[in-house]
Amino acid sequence: MSSNLTYEISVSFSRDNIAAVDILRGIICSIGVRDEDIVELENKTENILSFFLQDKNGALSAVKRIRDLKIKKVRTKCKVLKKEDWLTKWKTDFKPFKLTKTFKVIPAWLKKQDDKFTYSKIYLDTDMAFGTGLHSTTRFMANLIERCAGRFESFVDIGTGTAILAIIAERCSAKIVEAFDYDEDAVKTAQKNLIRNKTKLVKLSVADITKTAARMQYDFVSVNLTTDDLIDNRKKILSFVKPGKFLAVSGISIEKSKKFKNEFQKKLPLRCLKIEKDQAWCAFLYQRL
Fold this sequence. Notes:
The chain has helices at about 20-30, 55-70, 85-90, 135-145, 165-170, 185-195, 225-230, 235-240, 255-265; strands at about 5-15, 40, 45-55, 75-80, 95-100, 105, 120-125, 155-160, 175-180, 200-205, 220-225, 240-255, 270-275, 280-289. By secondary structure, the protein is of the alpha/beta class. The longest helix has 13 residues, at about 55-70.
């Protein structure tokens, strides 16, 4: 098969099938797909998980493994794409949208068409949908940052992705803004987004939270990781937060929210201020005591 072909595997399921999210993500990751390479989109009735493979046999095997789970109301399909289609596939449905009360996200390639929008505009370009605000975990974090506008001067975004939250933090009055991600490609994309949005304060770097010590404490810390990663690194995350200030965490599935609440805050000087949630995901805003 020509290397110019890529196989898109899409898994669709109803939004009320909360348990399916973690099960399907686990299966997809077990076949070698990185969690951050799984694109999750939502519409009014269903969630869709998509990922891409370049090996035909691997794609067919992945479809079979998912179907063998026999999860009710889960539909799996495989589509052959040309390389150029794969690189921009998800962008077809990526339109300008309202992220929060203040911010609107504009695809970078539509920048010249956005004059009618009166919101604070964020221009983004990326090779994946995660981190654009299309995923609810990113929207939750944006809302929590906006909620605290004017109450923090220093900010750090752990697992920054597209740098969208760092851009929002600067516009919400932060004077010191730092962001890092362990994925070098993500950081390269983030840097382009900072330039595109004329963001001047953000200091961006490649780093892994498990290997990175806090060089200072911040007024607002945002962390968007998986539930287990948040729990495993909870003390390290707390070390970034200035006493009396804010910590926002997201990436927590509703199914694991009880586990998260029981284990993340345990014996830590944190007070929960706000919970954002939908049918599948939730985020927490804490104050360090």
